[in-house]
Amino acid sequence: MRPRLRRSINGVLALILAFGLCGIPSVATAAPAQPDQIKKRVQLYDRVSVLTGLDWTVLAAIDQYERTMSRAHPKTRPLRETAVTGVYIPPTEWSGVLNPDEGDTEPASIRFFQGIGRDGSGDRLADRNQDEDLLFSVAAEVLRYGSVREDFAIGLWEYYQNTRAVQRILQFAKLYKTFGKPDITGNAFPLPLNSVYSFRSTWGNSRSWGGYRIHEGTDIFAEQGVPVRSTCYGIVEIKGWNRYGGWRIGIRDLNNLYHYYAHLSGFEKTLKAGDVVRPGQVIGWVGSSGYGRPGTQGKFPPHLHYGVYRDRGLVEWAFDPYPLLKRWERDERKSLKVHR
């Protein structure tokens, strides 16, 4: 076993235990996709599933992770305007580093130069502009270590060289398996609209406790004990104490955004890391915890600190959630009026 693989195997196996690989045989804030786009994706997943034996939920998870990386790095991971898949493979990786023809589509010469491009459409060409070829090529690389759960996860790590990528794909596969469809969309405001609350844009304000830093989120002030709700479909990634955020929960959605809820007075007791949540589901309650050892309370008025971070592959960057909060608040109010 190579040293690189040995160093990472424990972390990969820990992710398997936490999230599982739903749907694998034992032998995705972007605008919601349109119905015709979803239909094309389903057809793509079904075709590649036949070729690989992988469940569509796993193929959809790989595809969605790739799509989120392409959205985060549009200049270095450009996608075709008509692309169905989110997969991006650099030309040299596709055709082989020493291949004199970066646009090579001949499977035999690509294999000779140790490229990863393969024919997934059955036209005897390995074409980077072909959706089936792109998704099939990634799936085939990942399956080099086997299709059982542990081997597949190691294959993910070997391909991406990034434990975060493995975790994301496992999370996304679990979400697709739970809801049984590729179009999982919808959001909710984090507090009940019939509660008394107030908020404004506080992004970038200075903070000094524990050292100077900027405020990476929006504070929503409300009474102690007001329910805090998930804003998205997602998976609980972390739950517990943070000396800055107090009792906090982090939830990952299919757009690879990390939703951070801090200064809670408590959690919904049955909720644990790895659980799937829905928009509007209660996850905790407004409080004033944080700025100290576990259990520290009352150093500031009760409020929810809400932050959003985008995964860019190796790092995560915070961005101002205020526009999202205003939109979700507005959309939910409209929806309530319609259903009265």
From TrEMBL:
InterPro entries: Cell_wall_metabolism_enzyme (IPR050570), Dup_hybrid_motif (IPR011055), M23ase_b-sheet_dom (IPR016047). It comes from the Bacteria. Its EC number is 3.4.24.-. Residues 214-312 form the M23ase beta-sheet core domain. Pfam families: Peptidase_M23. The keyword Metal-binding does not apply. Keywords: Hydrolase, Signal. GO terms for molecular function: hydrolase activity. Residues 1-30 form the signal peptide. This is M23 family metallopeptidase. It comes from Cohnella yongneupensis. The lineage of its organism: Bacteria, Bacillati, Bacillota, Bacilli, Bacillales.
